[in-house]
Design goal:
82% helix
Length: 97
């Protein structure tokens, strides 16, 4: 019982680490895509909702990458959960390129 409690205590931070990494990935993707708004202004194309587009793209990108990494990590131990996560990731890759 002590081993199980110790193991559960050491794994308690995993969801928070995953969430923090997803938030940092979202911020990184938004920072990478934000200069494209300036390029659209220079070219003369309409960019009225550019930040909304960049924010949505960053959100989808971070969710897709996070589910892809989690699915790959879980593929050895949790087959069905990994299958669902990989299905979500590949659907995001195909539907929102």
């Amino acid at each position: 019982e002590k081993v199980e409690e110790k193991e559960a205590g050491s794994q308690a931070a995993r969801p928070y680490v995953t969430g923090a990494c997803m938030i940092l990935l979202f911020i990184a993707i938004v920072c990478i895509l934000k200069p494209f708004c300036n390029v659209l202004d220079i070219i003369g194309l309409p960019s009225s909702n550019c930040f909304l587009t960049v924010g949505f793209g960053g959100f989808v990108g971070s969710v897709v990458v996070t589910t892809l990494v989690m699915g790959m990590c879980w593929s050895c131990t949790r087959g069905w959960a990994a299958f669902v996560l990989l299905l979500i990731a590949f659907a995001g890759i195909v539907l929102c390129p």
